[in-house]
Amino acid sequence: xxxxxxxxxxxxxxxxxxxxxxxxxxxxxxxxxxxxxxxxxxxxxxxxxxxxxxxxxxxxxxxxxxxxxxxxxxxxxxxxxxxxxxxxxxxxxxxxxxxxxxxxxxxxxxxxxxxxxxxxxxxxxxxxxxxxxxxxxxxxxxxxxxxxxxxxxxxxxxxxxxxxxxxxxxxxxxxxxxxxxxxxxxxxxxxxxxxxxxxxxxxxxxxxxxxxxxxxxxxxxxxxxxxxxxxxxxxxxxxxxxxxxxxxxxxxxxxxxxxxxxxxxxxxxxxxxxxxxxxxxxxxxxxxxxxxxxxxxxxxxxxxxxxxxxxxxxxxxxxxxxxxxxxxxxxxxxxxxxxxxxxxxxxxxxxxxxxxxxxxxxxxxxxxxxxxxxxxxxxxxxxxxxxxxxxxxxxxxxxxxxxxxxxxxxxxxxxxxxxxxxxxxxxxxxxxxxxxxxxxxxxxxxxxxxxxxxxxxxxxxxxxxxxxxxxxxxxxxxxxxxxxxxxxxxxxxxxx
Length: 496
Prior knowledge:
It is built from one helix and 37 strands. By secondary structure, the protein is mainly beta.
């Protein structure tokens, strides 16, 4: 029979629902529909040889703070659309992730109307209802579209505050969640990134969920996707120049798989070389906070170099490759270490999250460059220099805390840096194009805020943009940047 749940002993628990191919009629045929009823304690099945389901037919064995209990299952429902035209996207792959970045169920495909249904696992209270701590985000990819989240676009939490109880055709009760946060708008790739072929396959290992699967050897940043709980993945937009498919996940070192095809590739297997956080390499280094204002702590993440975007200075972070461990709040103020790092080449980013801090932009002094590192199969990999981190320019808007909708060309606002002589400001779209820049914005010392009206070409409806401001100090012998706005703030979407 099909397994129900898969548990794990490493810190990032993968909670999977019924794996692909499990149908009600298969469960009925096994004679295993006499499990525990709603509210009863249960133990998740972990092996295909198990003969009994832990819960009665129509119920799911869900985690609680003190074990597991049988409860009505949960479905996320929504639509995948083109962010520029609002047209539905058929065949998109979507998955739900928990607060650590691990999937909480197998991926789903959107239908001809762009509709999808995701069965997800979630922590419950003693009555079997959703726990207050539940937090999901969505990941989606499709042919000829950029992955979400990615580029300028950060993950958006699913609003689970108003679940609806429903009944299916077999009179089983389940909980459905559908609202604006379960609609995902994807942005089309640039024309030179569209096309290519599709690779489908499977990631090996006891705990493959959340593995970042990347098509390397061609364009940079490379196409990528995320493996679901059973290890299955679908990788779109793979250019013919691609030579290797690789996987990145904490505690999992996978053998690269070569591809030499001009058409779609099916059933590609990424096989395990080494598994276990302690068996892989550890990356260590240090951070120095200088003129940090109210910022006391920060975080450090690793981005595979094949995915690093030099213009945006960012890229997707593989599951678990962060200090402190996700989802902990930033806590690094000196030495740090990231364990369980698979072999490969990485860019190391510091103060990348919204913590009031930025990597010092003055490249004329030590500790301000983005560092690169080749990580061996095991042992220690130490960064050459300490990162210098400083206080960020505070964004007022648009996009002070999250992407913001604007209906007209915006006025860009941030808090004045008291020691600057001028500012440079740039607006970048989600495809990585600089659409406008003003490199001689006067300082505003004493006024408290700086305001600059966007003066570029017409903004595109549905497109995401980010403004970035940098404060500049000028002396007779030197011109140097002294601070800038944070990496993830200042994002807005134009919706006239």
